[in-house]
Amino acid sequence: MTTRLRILDDGAWLSVDDTRQVSVSELWRLDAPGFCGCDLSDLVVENFLEVGIDGRTVEVRVYGQCIACGTKATTGWVPVGRVVDGAFEDIDRESVLRPRSPKSGQHSPDSGSTGQG
Amino acid sequence: MPTDVENWKSEVYGNEIREHLFRFAEEGYDAIPDDERDAWFERFKWWGLYHQRNGQEGYFMMRIGTPNGVLEPGQLRVVGEIANEYATGPGTNPIFGDAYADFTTRQSIQLHWIELSDVPAIFEKLEANGLSTQQACGDSWRNIVGNPVAGKDGQEVVDAWSVIRELNETFKGDDDHSNLPRKWKVSVTGSADGSGQGDINDLAFEPAYKEIDGEDVVGFNVRVGGGLARNEPRFARDIDVWVRPENVPAVAGGLSALFRDNGDREDRYNARIKFLVDEWGAEQVRETLQEEYVDFELHTAGRDVREEYTYNTGEGERNDLVGVHEQRDGKYFVGLNVLVGRMGAADVLDLADLADEYGSGEVRLSQRQNVIVTDVPEADLDDFLAEPLFERYSPEPSPFMRGSVACTGTEFCSLSIVETKNRQVRFARWLKENVDLPDDVEEFHIHLSGCTASCAQPQIADVSLRGMKTRKNGEAVEALDVGLGGGLGEEPQFARWVTQRVPADEVPGAIANLIDSFAAERDDGESFRAFVDRHEDAELDAFVEPEETDYEDPMLHNTKMTWYPYAGEDGMDAAPPTPADD
């Protein structure tokens, strides 16, 4: 079964099978020593950059900022959900998330932004 | 590899979208296949329809493009009637109620809660009255902006309105320019005040004189590649071209075609022409335009009038067009402050009546989200200004009301991180009650944008506010980054982001403390922008002292995860069903 994964609204949403599932502005606690100097990064998600799937796990790379130290950077692949029986299920993103280091991949943001004219 | 959007555009785009739009309107929202919704919503933008955000399934924002913000006699009434009849939905705004129109920073009009089934009737009414939503959004020529009183302004050195009308007629619906790599924002200014804000557009025509055969001829200098979005703000670059008014369509079309053929269609983050200008440089843009896209010899740039620019510069006269101003023909235009650009439909209709009664019926929209009533005879000014409606839309507002600009925010927009319009109203009211600017400071611009798309143009304000999140007492709360000292003029400057992640309830206190420091430490007569200019970021950060005050912010929680921030039951599971197809 094919799962349609897209980044929409100028990087503001992760869409899975045409349903917006994960949005910017979430705060994630990342165990990601490479992201910043904090023991746990407290990341505000500002933009989705890439989405991929590893087995059943939906992963994203995002641009964001650690609100504890101010570092702005792009993450490795952060798990945000799983596809189970064809349906998307959230991973508990209130808990600590552990990204994998970046892998090669096409930078593939999509869709357009709103605006005022 | 082309993006999904480019693939969707290659299948159906431009004028042909209309027949599909009408088919779905007839068959019902549910006739759009689930797995095609993202594609169709992307395409509908070309016809001015933006699907609202999560939780508001089946409702659309509709943008009406009014070139240069000009509403001919009768057109404002049509907008008010459409807002009244169609722009209501399941959510009621606690400040603005139901049924309102938003005047935007690009001189357009936005209506919300539009249902697909109503689109054909709305289009019919708009088009019967000379209005359109065509290309109001999407990857093509957007609404053309300029000095809103073009053609009437005493400060105009070249007639921009006739040029804008011709560009609009030429490039709206032109299949050769209907599918560009990204949006294409054009500004044409004929006055010497800079009120067209050309510097922040993809393509800008600005008044300039050129000596030709011993005579000074007035026309336009050309700048390319401005824009504010995505943490990558750019001012438009001078490409060393002067053009006669009659040749503007050829040069504008040439540059649009250059963008069409050379813009990046594989990465939408890199697609705007500002990035192509970064890559090529202004010289290569000029050479390519000359060699491949125009069939006459381009003149080099003429003598501009940028040193006379006052609009949004932070000091001097005519920072905006609010208030009473004399037109070239001896009549007057009156700029009215519309706080955050939102006006209830009943007020829109009342204003249309007043414009008829006192003026020609014409109304214009500025890039500061305000309205302007034109053609008021001097003898009628006093009576006009005494009308009760203008207690709410004042021609002499408090600086904090006058200077407030805000984007749509999480109320309707998918991109925004925070609530904006109502918050900016709350900020302005609190500042008006609690903060005094120095006596000689009459204008103070505060722009609030919900995200980096920068629809409220935050980087060109005295105080720039941009949506963020932070933690306060361990809880995630809506926050704002604070930038200072932005503005346009001869030497435009983007705001410097000096203080990050201020919890939204501490922002009014921060601005109050900042203004206290400004008042105490400024040089005699010094503008806020000049004051910011001579201080280091760390000093400015110290002036911005976030503080809780008696200001209360009811929207500190994550408004993005509500179906509608102001609903009693605001959770996503309380979202209304898609509207019935009646």
Give structural notes.
- The complex is a heterodimer of chains A (117) and B (582).
- Chain A is mainly beta and 117 residues long.
- In chain A, strands 4, 5, 6, 7, 8, 9 and 10 form a seven-stranded mixed β-sheet that branches.
- Chain A has one domain (5-97).
- The radius of gyration of chain A is 14 Å and the shape is globular.
- Chain A has no helices and ten strands.
- Chain A has strands at residues 5-8, 13-16, 19-23, 27-30, 41-54, 57-66, 72-74, 78-84, 87-90, 96-97.
- Chain B is an alpha+beta fold and 582 residues long.
- Chain B has four domains: 4-128, Sulfite Reductase Hemoprotein, domain 2, CATH 3.90.480.20; 160-308, 2-Layer Sandwich (Sulfite Reductase Hemoprotein, domain 1), CATH 3.30.413.10; 323-397, Alpha-Beta Plaits (2-Layer Sandwich); 401-561, 2-Layer Sandwich (Sulfite Reductase Hemoprotein, domain 1), CATH 3.30.413.10.
- Chain B contains 16 helices and 20 strands.
- Chain B has helices spanning 4-11, 17-27, 37-44, 75-86, 119-128, 160-171, 248-262, 273-280, 282-293, 345-358, 381-385, 399-402, 421-434, 507-521, 528-533, 537-543, and strands spanning 49-51, 59-64, 70-71, 100-103, 109-115, 186-188, 203-212, 215-224, 237-243, 303-304, 323-326, 332-336, 342-344, 363-365, 371-376, 404-406, 446-449, 463-472, 475-484, 496-503.
- In chain B, strands 1-2-5-4-13 form a five-stranded antiparallel β-sheet. Chain B has a five-stranded antiparallel β-sheet with strand order 3-14-15-12-11, covered by helices on one side.
- The longest helix of chain B is centred in the middle third of the chain and has 15 residues, at 248-262.
- The radius of gyration of chain B is 23 Å and the shape is globular.
- The two termini of chain B are 42 Å apart.
- The model of chain B has no long low-confidence stretch (mean pLDDT 96).
- The chains are: A mainly beta (117), B alpha+beta (582).
- At the A-B interface, β5 of A face α3 and β18 of B.
